[in-house]
Design a protein that fits this description.
Blueprint (H helix, E strand, L loop, with lengths): L1 E2 L3 E5 L3 E7 L2 E5 L17 E6 L5 H4 L2 H6 L3 E4 L5 H4 L1 H7 L23 E2 L5 E4 L2 E7 L8 E7 L2 E7 L28 H15 L4 E4 L8 H17 L8 H6 L2 E5 L2 E4 L6 E5 L4 E5 L23 H10 L3 E6 L5 H4 L2 H8 L2 E5 L3 H5 L18 E3 L3 E5 L2 E7 L8 E7 L2 E5 L29 H12 L3 E3 L6 E2 L2 H21 L13 E4 L2 E4 L4 E9 L6 E8 L5 E3 L2 E6 L4 E9 L7 E12 L2 E13 L1
Helix pairs in contact: 5-6, 12-13
C-alpha cells in the first residue's frame, strides 16, 4: 500500500512504514525486520534510521537485525529502558505476588542498543527525514506518534493509539494499574487515549496510519466514535461523568489573578504570572495525568507538557522562564528536563536541593528522578531572590524531607507561602486532623515540624499552597495548631526512642556517599562515610569498610574523635581488582564503632563494575 509518492506500508507483525528519500529510507517501527529483505520493492538501497512508536514486541521483535546492519535506532524517551536495557528489565521485574498489570512484559526478549531518544514536542532530523514527535500515551504510557508532511498531506503515524475507524487494538494494554481508589484507576490508558486523540486532532492530520488496521481517512469522525465509546466505559466506573475537554483545555485554576494552580497534575504545580508575559513554575511533575501506571521503572512515569499551551492561549504567557522545586521528589520535578529542552526553561534550585537534582545516584533517598536535572542557578537559603516584579523568599523547610524549601512571595496583594508536601492543609477542628507528612527515609529530624511552624509564624502568610491539597486561607488558630502538633511530634519521638543512644529519627549512625557508583575493572573510587556520635560526650569513632572479595580500601580503618551528638566524615579510596568481571550492584558497607558500642554495618553503598 502506498500513500503519495514516497510513503509505503509493509505488512509484518505490525505495520512498518517506509519513508523513501531517493535511494534511502527511514522506517516507522520495525516488526520482525523482514522489511530489510524487501527494500528493492520500494526502490530503496539503504535504511538509515528506525523510529519506534512504542516498546511492544510486535513493533520491535526484529530490532537486533537493524542494530547489526548499522541502522540508527530511535525510541520513545519514556520507554528507552525497555529496549536498551531489556535484559535488566527481565532480571529485576517482579513476578511473585505481582499486582502490576501494565504490559511491560510484552517487551524485547533481549536488549538492543539504541542511538538515542526521539525529541518529543519537536521536529528533528533523522537521517534524511524531518519528523515531528508527539507524545501519545494510551496504548502504553510512553507511546509516541510521528507527524510528516508529504505530498500536500499531513500524515500521522499513531502506533496503536487508534485502530481502524474508531476502535483500539487492545483494551487490556490500556489498563496501566490495578484497580484502586483513584477515580480513573484501571482505565488510566483509556482516558489517556481520549486525551491523546484530542491533542492529535489539534495538529490537523489528514490521514492516521496505525500499527494495526486500515488507515484512518477521516480522523475527526474516527476520534469522535472512539471518544464516545471510551467515555462511556470510563463513566461506567465513575460517580460523575468525565470531561476530557475540561481536563485538556482548562487545566489551570485561579488562586489569585497572577497565581494559578494546575489541577490536572501530580503533584500540584503553580504558575506565577508576570506582567511581562512570562511565568515561573513552582514544581512541575506529571502533567495531564490520568493516574500513575503500576511499577516504578522509567516506563511507568510519563512527563508531559500539555498544560503549557493553556498558559499561552488563555493567560497571555509567551514563555515559561523559570521552574523552582519545593523538593527533589519525582512527582514535583519529572517535567523539568522536558521544560528546559522544549521551552528553554531555566531550573533554579535552593543550594541544598540542587546537588540532589544534579546527581541523583549519589544519594540514598527515595523518589529520585531517573536522570540528572541541570540547575542553572543555585539559590542561597534564607535570602530573597528576584524574578521579574516578584521578590521570592527562599526558606529551608526540613520535615517531609531534609531537601525541601518553602517560598514566600506576594501575589496580587496577598502574602503566599508555598510549602510542597510538608503538611496536608486540610485541618478542620474536631473533624479532620492535620497530617505532618514526615517520611523517615526522606531524612526527617525530630524537631523539623516545630521549626517549620516557627517559620510560618515569622512569615505570617495569608495563603498557603501545597503539593497535593487545595490552597488554604491561613488563620492564627491554624498556625498555633501547627506549632502545637510539631512540638507534640517531637515530644513523642523523644519519649519513644532510647534516651541513652540518640540516633535521631532516622535510626542510623552512618551514611555512605555516593550511594551508587560505576567503576571499571581495576578502577578506583572515593567514598565518604558520614557518621554520627549518638552520645552526649566526645567519643572515639572507628570506621571500616566491608568489601567484596579482592577489593581493598585505603586506609583500612579511619579513627576520629567526634563531639557529642556531632557528625564527622571518614574518607576512603576503594580499589577494584584488575580482573574483576562486570557485575551490577556490588555491595559494600561501613562498619561503625563509637565509644563503647559497635553498631556494625550501618550503611551500605552499591557499586557497578562495567
Amino acid at each position: 500500500m502506498r500513500f503519495g509518492d514516497d510513503v509505503f506500508l509493509f505488512r509484518d507483525t505490525c505495520h512498518v512504514y517506509v519513508l523513501r528519500y531517493g535511494r534511502q529510507a527511514v522506517l516507522i517501527d520495525f516488526g520482525s525486520g523482514d522489511v530489510l529483505d524487501h527494500l528493492t520493492d520500494f526502490d530503496v538501497d539503504e535504511v538509515t534510521d528506525v523510529l519506534v512508536t512504542h516498546h511492544h514486541r510486535d513493533q520491535v521483535q526484529g530490532l537486533g537485525r537493524a542494530a547489526a546492519a548499522g541502522i540508527r535506532i530511535w525510541v520513545p524517551p519514556v520507554e528507552q529502558d525497555l529496549v536498551a536495557r531489556a535484559d535488566e528489565h527481565w532480571r529485576t521485574r517482579p513476578l511473585d505476588n505481582d499486582y502490576s498489570v501494565r504490559q511491560d512484559r510484552f517487551s524485547l526478549l533481549n536488549q538492543v542498543p539504541v542511538t538515542g531518544t526521539v525529541a518529543e514536542y519537536r521536529t528533528a532530523r533523522y537521517g534524511p527525514a524531518e519528523i515531528h514527535t508527539l507524545p501519545l500515551p494510551g496504548h502504553t504510557p510512553g507511546s509516541v506518534g510521528y507527524l510528516l508532511d508529504s505530498g500536500g498531506k499531513r500524515l500521522a503515524f499513531t502506533g496503536d493509539l487508534i485502530h481502524g475507524e474508531g476502535r483500539v487494538w487492545s483494551l487490556a494494554a490500556t489498563q496501566w494499574a490495578y484497580t484502586g481508589s483513584h477515580e480513573l484507576a484501571g482505565v488510566e490508558g483509556a482516558a489517556a487515549t481520549v486525551l491523546s486523540c484530542l491533542q492529535l486532532l489539534d495538529h490537523r492530520p489528514d490521514l492516521l496510519l496505525p500499527s494495526h488496521g486500515e488507515p484512518v481517512t477521516d480522523p475527526p469522525r474516527a476520534v469522535a466514535r472512539l471518544r464516545g465509546r471510551l467515555t462511556e466505559l470510563l463513566d461506567s466506573r465513575r460517580r460523575a461523568p468525565w470531561d476530557p475537554e475540561a481536563m485538556l483545555r482548562r487545566p489551570w485554576r485561579e488562586v489569585t489573578p497572577h497565581l494559578l494552580r494546575n489541577v490536572t497534575s501530580v503533584a500540584c504545580s503553580y504558575a506565577l504570572l508576570s506582567d511581562h508575559g512570562t511565568a515561573l513554575l513552582l514544581d512541575f511533575g506529571y502533567d495531564l495525568t490520568t493516574g500513575l501506571a503500576g511499577g516504578t521503572d522509567r516506563a511507568s512515569r510519563r512527563p508531559l507538557l500539555a498544560s503549557i499551551e493553556s498558559l499561552r492561549r488563555d493567560h497571555g504567557i509567551d514563555r515559561v522562564e523559570v521552574a523552582l522545586p519545593t523538593h527533589y521528589h519525582d512527582d514535583h520535578v519529572a517535567g523539568f528536563n522536558l521544560l528546559r529542552e522544549v521551552h528553554g526553561t531555566a531550573v533554579w534550585a535552593p543550594a541544598h536541593i540542587a546537588p540532589v537534582l544534579r546527581d541523583p545516584e549519589a544519594w540514598d533517598l527515595p523518589c529520585l528522578w531517573y536522570d540528572a536535572i541541570p540547575v542553572q542557578r543555585e539559590l542561597p537559603l534564607n535570602a530573597p531572590v528576584r524574578w521579574r516584579e516578584y521578590e521570592i523568599g527562599v526558606h529551608d523547610l526540613p520535615g517531609h524531607t531534609l531537601y525541601a524549601a518553602a517560598y514566600s512571595f506576594t501575589a496580587d496583594g496577598r502574602r503566599v507561602v508555598a510549602t510542597g508536601d510538608q503538611q496536608t492543609t486540610e485541618w478542620e477542628p474536631g473533624l479532620r486532623p492535620e497530617l505532618l507528612n514526615y517520611q523517615y527515609r526522606n531524612r526527617f529530624r525530630i524537631d523539623d515540624f516545630t521549626r517549620s511552624a516557627e517559620l510560618y509564624l515569622d512569615l505570617r502568610p495569608e495563603l498557603m499552597i501545597s503539593g497535593h491539597w487545595r490552597p488554604r486561607e491561613i488563620t492564627d488558630d491554624y498556625l498555633a495548631m501547627l506549632l502545637e502538633e510539631g512540638q507534640r511530634l517531637a515530644r513523642l519521638h523523644r519519649e519513644l526512642l532510647p534516651r541513652e543512644v540518640d540516633l535521631g529519627a532516622e535510626g542510623f549512625a552512618a551514611r555512605i556517599s555516593p550511594y551508587r557508583s560505576v567503576v571499571p575493572a581495576g578502577g578506583k573510587l572515593r567514598l565518604a562515610v558520614g557518621i554520627r556520635n549518638p552520645f552526649p560526650g566526645t567519643e572515639a569513632a572507628e570506621v571500616r569498610l566491608a568489601l567484596p572479595a579482592g577489593w581493598r580500601a585505603e586506609p583500612a580503618v579511619v579513627r576520629l574523635d567526634v563531639d557529642g551528638h556531632a557528625e564527622a566524615v571518614a574518607e576512603f579510596a576503594v580499589q577494584v581488582p584488575e580482573m574483576m568481571v562486570p557485575a551490577e550492584r556490588q555491595r559494600l558497607a561501613a562498619d561503625l564503632t563509637v565509644g563503647p558500642m559497635r553498631f556494625g554495618q550501618q550503611a551500605e553503598a552499591l557499586v557497578s563494575v562495567r
